[in-house]
Amino acid sequence: MARTANRPIVGIIGDGQLALMLADALKSSKIDFLCLSSSSESPMALLYPGETTQNSLYFQAQANVFTLENEFHTVAELSELLGEKKDRLFPDTASYAHFADKISQHKLYASLNLPTPEWMEVRDPNLTLIMEKFSFPFIVKAPAGGYDGKGVRVVRNPSEFNIVSDAFGLYEGKSLLIEQMVKIKKELAQGFIRNADGNYTLLPLVETVQVNGICQFVHYPAPVTNKIASEIESILKTLMNNLVGIFNFEFFIDDEDCIFINEGAPRPHNSQHLTIDASAHSQFTLLADYLIQKKDLPHSVPTKTSAMINILGKSSGPGYELTLPKTEPGVSVHSKLYGKQTCTPGRKMGHVNLVDESATHNLTEIATRVFKEYHI
Ligand code: ADP
Questions:
Q1: Which CATH class is domain 9-89?
Q2: What is the pTM of this model?
Q3: How many other C-beta atoms are found inside a 10 Å radius of the C-beta of residue 367?
Q4: Low-confidence residues of the chain, pLDDT below 50?
Q5: May I ask the CATH class of domain 118-180?
Q6: Candidate of 106, 133, 135, 152 to mutate for ligand 1, largest count of ligand atoms within 8 Å of Cβ
């Protein structure tokens, strides 16, 4: 790692694609960084070998401001990792603690009177108690460790409840989160970055298109009324008053235009990758700016008409190549592969951003075609 005297060294906890894209942003802003990786085979270790370590003591000693790319650590683990530097984590540990599992998140939203689907924490396999509040079908979630819909199931009858309870560890003493099944019309996402002084940047409101719990595309602008956009902004402002760091939230809109917070993440988010090519400030460059305490950051992020398509593995195997179909002139295409060693079906291997400078193309149609026709 080549060091510049008297400049901060950002410590990135985690080695997946979010760490990689933050590293790209730090590199282009000439900010030093060191990533704590769990494997010498990770994309970070392979692409930034000089800036990656598996030695947590070295990591803690070298870096002087820290951030993370997933919420899979407990606050106790983070405190142990960072020791006397634990106050230099962005998001701060008090804010992060709300997001370490989905039940803590629901408690935060309830304490702030923010709308979520009806929910209940369950520690006991007794369905009678659950049926006092819910009726089939309802949603069961593993409170921690899930991603891309892996910890989410629709439960339609007692036998499915038993199967899910077993799979999610209820009989081994783990809790389950039960949620009302929302009749979703649209899924949206938006987030913000805020520092301890109260300065903030609101990220763009986007629509996400999910199939089987995994996001296929994201569109900007989100096709919603001003009323919905401003209600979401006011939810974010309430959250902002209570949080320091970068946070992204997913929302459901139902048939009656009611808004529900689905979940939040204390980190950059897949739904904001289009900011890399469609905005002057990406979520990663902004996070880098906040980490080095740059002044005069924007309150909002003007963004061009754009779409992001997740490149999900279609086959299994080591060597792979991405082939994209032709798009229309006037739509620029930016692809990013995450350098993962093996491709497996459904795995997030990269993304493609489409930017429509003239805002005259049907990006939904083009994104749908790219999603159907890419090969990897
Ligand atoms: P993950 O943390 O794995 O991304 P989410 O909680 O975001 O899981 O759920 C994944 C998807 O499952 C959502 O995007 C949505 O499509 C669906 N889903 C989750 N919760 C509900 C709910 N309460 N009602 C209806 N659908 C839901």
A1: alpha beta
A2: 0.96
A3: 24
A4: none
A5: alpha beta
A6: 152
